[in-house]
Amino acid sequence: MGDRVEELLGELTLDEKVSLLGGEDWWHIPAVPRLGIGSVKVSDGPAGVRGAEHSGGPHSASFPCGTALAATWDVELIERVGAALAAELDSKGAHVILAPTVNLHRSPLAGRSFECFSEDPFLSARLAVAYINGVQRSGKGATVKHLVANDSEHERMTISSEVPERALRELYLLPFEAAVREAGVWCVMTAYNRVAGTYCSESTDLITDILRDEWGFDGLVMSDWYGTHSTAPATLAGLDLEMPGPPENRGPALRAAVDSGEVPTSVLDDRVRAVLQLAARAGVLEAGAAERPTERYDHDLGRIALLREAAASGIVLLQNDPVDGRPVLPLVGTALDRVAVIGPTAALPSIEGGGSAHVSAPYAVSPVEGLAAALPGVEVVHEPGASIRRGATTIDTTWAATEGGRPGLSVRYFAGDEPAGSPVRDEVVTSSLFRWFPGLDPAGPGAPWSVEVTADFTAAFDGLHTFSVRSADRVRLWVSDEVADAWSPEPGERGTVSVAVELRAGESVPLRLHTARVDQGPDVWGQVDMRVLEPVPGDLADRAVAAASAADVAVVVVGLDSSWETEGRDRTDLSLPGGQVDLVRRVVAANPRTVVVVNAGAPVEMGWVDDVPAVLQAWYLGQETGNALADVLLGVVDAGGRLPTTIPHHLADIPAQAHYPGADGQVHYGEGLLVGYRGFDELGIDARYPFGHGLSYTAFEHGAVSLSTPTVGPGGTVEVSLPVTNVGGRAGDQVVQVYVSDVEASVPRPPKELKGFVRLHLEPAETGVASVTLDERSFAFWDPEAHGWTAEPGEFEVLVGTSATEIVGRASLRWEAPAS
Ligand code: BGC
Q: Residue 398: its pLDDT value, please?
């Protein structure tokens, strides 16, 4: 492989070399047919493989989000998820997934928290390695992103993250380091932001010194989409590929920089070598001008079973108090006649966060549907109880338990600037947010095209409904016979159109939208956003309370959705919007047997938990949401998830919050190492639910901690073991967490840090041994002066816990200096 890469380097012309260093379109690296070099295709990531289109195209399996996967604490499962993603890549004709996202939960407000695994770098690293191994052992590639300190969306394209060196090394870079050193990740995506004033995409420190020279990265470095800001500096710093294409800073600009000597040909060759190497790994180095495979969706039952298993494994039972002497969960189907499933996302489920992590799921099983299927003979009633719609919302028809279960929006593409005659292509999509990436070209390369979208909208509530369309393109909207027009040829005269109609609940109206892509230029992507502002009736909560009081148990699904948690925008607080807190309080007052399910990708404020017996954190669980939730609610599987992130009482308790979101183009990571539980420990702040917390339906007894050696030194390892016995009446899962504390540290260190964990599955009366190996890095800190990792001689304490605050065993050991 290496030989062929070198041979090709000798055969490529200068222009061909330059062409390989910028995307061909949004997802492809250019081919060089003359030399048989095929095109590598990349695809988002991380909760599925979307394929080339944002709005249309075949469906994609929708996986649990990053926090949900992390909450499984199950590396074996995550590796199987990675293998399933490789199969999804295959179905989309793609070679490389743009995932996993391993930025840390510095602040829960960060719009992409749901996409990232954890506040803890060690947990993130283990899961990233498992995810990447799963993908890459199946012959596809992964892209660890976004390098680095891309921990919020505030001014995300420009902000400079000012991170103290130790925090950068010990926290933010650590998952990347593991992805490179341990999993041999094929690609790294640089972050949009700057670090210490320099754009990540042109940081020699990050890309060349740390990633390549120190960690030995031998793969490809690409920029985030439109995150390349220069030609020579980025190329010299080590950025191989500008994405997407056609490139702005490569192409002729790079050719000129090579001609002028600003970019030496040896550097150019290094960049090209990385692209060829990726093509070799992807198996397209000699693929030639092979026809690009058409994308498809595989309705694979094995993969669907895995989606359900993974989703259920990440649900965290936060509390489960008794009512009338018995814990509320698991629900016992035979004891139930009627269940009220309440909440704004109970029937219209929130299955994913927003932004580039979106996939078009083939279906979405709602909590109502999942419970109804799992409880035959039990009456399952539903009331939304509240609305979390954030103003006008897109029309989303994914909400059906089976593929094709509800009609979608019909989209027909036409050649020319008016949708007329015979369509050149047609499809059915599930969302009224249309993003058309360059290269779609339904009418042929560069030719103008137009679209007609039709759909029937059925009102959920009585009242005034305002339909609107926003776009930079020409648009025209009909709602029944009413029309609103922005078809002007003058770009400035386009914009938002809207039509308001009175509807009664259950009444349907036909919608028709026309748009045309005529004068935007081939490189500009189109966005047409059709929304509806629905009335919110005043009696939603009253009706929910009535349903709850007439039921044996009330399951209240509260939370957020992709309009609240999304790439591009941080939250402004941790509240549950739309009167959901009031809903919870009123429902539990009406029926003490109430379970609250929090359907949000990141922590929300939970001031109400003391009134509620049972609470689950259910994240965004993908298309199998309702089935997975029913599995846990009914105890078909144990509640085995554990929090990968601290749930605070209040936003202000988060140590980083004092420095968030930054000012004057900079965000100072002033909390340093005190991110997540490290900060709660150090500052003595009580968490609502600590990192690592989660209850099981069974009970465990923990034996004494034993260490394989009381002293360890350079090159050595120590095995930490602890027996765990299932002393309850049913099978269950325990997650044993091993933290290390540097008792005699000469530098400030967090009170303890996670360095190992095991998820054990135990049958009743079974004893298993949780065993974790610690090595030098488990004891070390980053020493800026020595520019390396240092484990200081002296005493360390090993703390074994079932959360960051439930420590069930301890042992001391000494780290010994090397004999001099
Ligand atoms: C995101 C990346 C994503 C890329 C391609 C960017 O906006 O930050 O995570 O992979 O778009 O969709």
A: 67
Give 141's strand partners: 96
β pairing state of 409-415 and 449-458: antiparallel
Q: Are 601 and 105 in contact (CB under 8 A)?
A: no
pLDDT bin (cut points 50, 70, 90) of residue 402 is low
Model confidence at 442, pLDDT cuts 50, 70, 90, reads confident
Q: Sheet harboring 187-190: ordered strands across? A: 42-43, 96-97, 141-147, 187-190, 220-222
Helix, strand, or coil here: 6? helix
**Which tokens is 386 given?**
């509240």
Report whether 694 contacts 642 (CB < 8 A): yes
Alpha helices in 634-769 (DSSP H): 677-683
pLDDT at 819 over 70: no
Overall average pLDDT of the 595-608 stretch: 98
How many Å apart are CA 359 and CA 388, to the nearest integer? 21
**55 within ligand 1 shell (Cβ under 6 A):** no
For residue 162, list its beta bridge partners: 668
For the stretch 316-333, pLDDT in tens is 999 999 999 999 999 998
Reduced to 3 states (helix: H, G, I; strand: E, B; else coil), residue 751 is coil
Helices and strands (DSSP H and E) totals, the chain: 18, 41
* Nearest protein Cα to ligand 1, atom 3: 356
Q: Which residue matches tokens 């034996």?
A: 703
Report whether residue 43 contacts ligand 1, using a CB cutoff of 6 Å.
no
Q: Is 98 in the pocket of ligand 1 (CB under 6 A)?
A: yes
Q: Measure the CA angle with vertex 47, ends 179 and 733; round to 5°.
A: 80
- Rounded to whole angstroms, how far apart are CA atoms 44 and 115? 12
Instruction: Write down the H helix ranges in 550-686.
Output: 580-590, 625-633, 677-683
The residue ranking higher by pLDDT, 389 or 43, is 43
pLDDT tens for each residue of 17-30: 999 999 999 999 99
Q: Where are the beta strands (DSSP E) in 94-179?
A: 96-97, 141-147, 160-162
Whether the per-residue pLDDT at 307 is higher than 80: the answer is yes
Pocket test for ligand 1, best of 145, 225, 436, 569 (most atoms within 8 A of CB): 225
pTM: 0.95
Residues forming the active site: 224
Strand partners, 497: 469
- Tell me which of 226-235, 414-423, 623-632, 660-669 is least confident: 414-423
**Ligand 1 atom closest to Cα of residue 44:** 10
CA 591 / ligand 1 centre spacing (Å): 45
Tell me which H or E stretch contains 707.
strand 706-707
Separation of 41 CA from ligand 1 center, angstroms?
14
Structure tokens at 367: 């909590």
Structure tokens at 747: 């530098």
Q: Is the pLDDT of residue 472 over 90?
A: no
Q: What is the pLDDT of residues 713-753, one digit of tens each?
A: 999 999 999 999 999 999 999 999 999 999 999 999 999 99
If one counts every other C-beta atom within 10 angstroms of the C-beta of residue 717, the result is 12
Q: What is the mean pLDDT of residues 668-678?
A: 98
Does residue 525's CB lie within 6 angstroms of at least one atom of ligand 1?
Answer: no
Residue 524: its pLDDT value, please? 65
Prior bond of 100 cis (ω within 30°): yes
114 in Cβ contact with 565 (< 8 Å):
yes
Ligand 1 centre to CA of 536 (Å) is 34
Q: Before 358, cis peptide (omega within 30)?
A: no
